[in-house]
Amino acid sequence: MSASTTKSMDEIVALCRRRGFIWQSSEVYGGINGFWDYGPLGAQLKKNLKDAWWQDVIKTPPAGPDGADLDIVPVDCTIIMNPKVWEASGHVGGFNDPMVDCAETKKRYRADHISCYGVVDEKDGRENAEPTTIGYVATLAATEEEFFTSYRENEKKFFKRLAKAFGKPVMVQLPGEGVPYTNLQGFDRKIVLGPDATEVGTLTEPREFNLMFETYVGAIRDEESKAYLRPETAQGIFTQFWNVVDTARVKIPFGMAQIGKAFRNEVTPRNFTFRSREFEQMEIEFFIRPETAGEWYQYWRDTRYAWWQSIGLAGDNLTLREHDKDELSHYAKEGAGVCDVEYRFPFTAPGYGELEGIAHRSDFDLKAHATACGKGDKLMYRDPVTNEKFFPHVIEPSAGADRGTLAVLCEAFTPTPDRAGSKYVMKFVPRLAPIKAAIFPLVNKDGMPEIADKLYRQLRNKYTIQTDAKQSIGKRYARMDEAGTPYCFTIDGDTATDQTVTVRDRDTAEQTRISLDKVESFLAEKIGD
RNA sequence: GCGGGUGUAGCUCAGUGGUAGAGCGUCACGUUGCCAACGUGAAUGUCGUGGGUUCAAAUCCCAUCACCCGCUCCA
């Protein structure tokens, strides 16, 4: 069992609050479910993560499978778009799932997943070709055959339950198609026996769960002005694909990338920031020739997995999981594959939670928008060399910035019960650490504060540096341990005479002396620019 | 949305109807000679919120909000 499974999420959340990494949004008003703010340390940490992504994805991505450099261009699209975007992408249909609750069993179902089969009085059913339906039995079975098989296994019990629920011996109207619960009207919904229920009529009316946030553009609030907050940043990229081809001097294969907020009105936000209703995505859409999907899918899967390792999630807590065919999205059924980079969070352990999904989305989105906007095949990509026309396929690595930040926080969190000072150390890789180094005068007199201040001013142009002269040195080290600051430089009584300072290492608490004028090069070596 | 639990200072918690508390932390001053040191002092509370019962509510009742756990959901 890995170390992270023994970490306490409560302690991590407490440290995040105490040190100013993450707070509840609008906390003074009692908060708001599913929304989180980043404090000073958290905002810097998340920015460092996004900067690392921007650097490694847009500026210097590793060479492609053919050894050539990649061309990836950034865009920054709006959160509110023409609502037709979301009709074409399938979100208006797909994100509105009517739900049904069962008052008896306390279970919740998607209304369109429940099939209802008519039930008739046994006597009536024997005597008449078209007997009167006296109720329905609901099942989660997808097909009539599956339903038939499921109750055949214990037929006696099944009909006993029905007889009890309907107050008389009954027959089920088979063969015949099951009717989705959503298609039942009015009174019929009151005579349905829910799955696993013993009483009739315990299912509620279907209720719409709008997973997209709605808003209105302009002064008038009517259907015409309705718009949505984007549930993913990807569609902005797809809708600007043609402008990028026309202006950015790119040719297939190339990528578009953006970082931005997205919104999903989740049914149950849970697990700290893991499932937030407002969150930030770091998305790449990499456009390719269809026949190269396999090699590019592999490239991105390996590249993205290695990237998460490079920012500190290097141990057993990180995993790469290929999706089974049956859990694939509508756009990815026939593709090179879909996989998730997953992290074992304390609240998912021993399981994992998704950080990034890498999917071969085929040409679903470009085709959908080309069709929906009415231009169709005129919007096909033309290969400038062969003049061949086609809709490019897409490999989409889509990462969660907030989930990534949370994973980094969880991974860095290290209780240190044996250490003399700090109870906790946040072991961020230096590249992500919100504060790169701290500078302390050992005591607040004898010229030490002046030397510390001079060193601080020298370094702060290049690095995020803090200085602190208050309270005991142990307390100051401990605070920096919880902030995850990799190095502390301390000016002591010897500094004025021999021009050296001590360097304290966050992870070992060990100290070494280095020359005052070597501090900057020390940081450059350990932290990078 | 359902069921269960929780909510008092920044944190951990005590307080069963009668003056709002402790420890830690924070801040100031003093001290200091490398790991949450010490001394003195200070600030900090809509007792989650709203309503009700009562002469009197942190305490009893109702509603509501937030968080945690379990369902459910997560194209």
Describe this structure in words.
- This protein has 16 helices and 28 strands.
- The chain has 529 residues and is an alpha+beta fold.
- It has three domains: 191 residues, BirA Bifunctional Protein, domain 2; 113 residues, no CATH class; 108 residues, Anticodon-binding domain (Rossmann fold), CATH 3.40.50.800.
- A seven-stranded mixed β-sheet has the order 3-14-15-21-18-17-16. Strands 6, 7, 8, 9 and 10 form a five-stranded mixed β-sheet that branches. A five-stranded mixed β-sheet has the order 25-24-26-27-28, with helices on both faces.
- Helix 2 packs across helix 12.
- The two termini are 36 Å apart.
- The N terminus is likely disordered.
- The protein binds one RNA strand of 75 nucleotides through helix 1, helix 4, strand 4, strand 5 and helix 14.
Oligomer: single chain
- Which structural class should the secondary elements be placed in? alpha+beta
CATH homology superfamily name of the largest domain = Bira Bifunctional Protein, Domain 2
Low-confidence stretches: 1-5
Percent helix, as a range, is 25-40%
CATH top level of the largest domain is Alpha Beta
Determine the mean pLDDT.
Answer: 87
Q: What is the rounded Rg?
A: 30 Å
Main sheet record: 7 strands, mixed
